[in-house]
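It is worth pausing here to work through a concrete case rather than discussing structure prediction in the abstract. The textbook approach is simple: state the sequence, then state the predicted structure, then interpret. We follow exactly that order.
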Amino acid sequence: MLANIRATPIYRHRVDFDDGAILEIVVWRLPTPIEGCSHSFKYRLFYGSAGKRLIGYDNERPKGDHRHNDDREELYSFESPEKLIDDFLRDVEDRRAGR
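Step two, the predicted structure:
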């Protein structure tokens, strides 16, 4: 994934919920943007269960910034790591509350 790129981890967090759901956030700072992005961050944010993603945000190359909601994928407008995490946690909160 980050072969030959010197990545600096800046945030990592995981929560294992009592109902079996998993929330994991990993963000790295890169020396240069990856293909498809205009910023110098690489990230993967996951909420789901083993083998089943319900909510996800990532920026795999060459797709760039995007989010997953069940089987739907849509572009995501990245502004900052803080906003990314806030948006993700809001989506997870909504899903857990049944909204």
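Step three, interpretation. The longest strand covers residues 8-16. The chain has one domain: 8-96.
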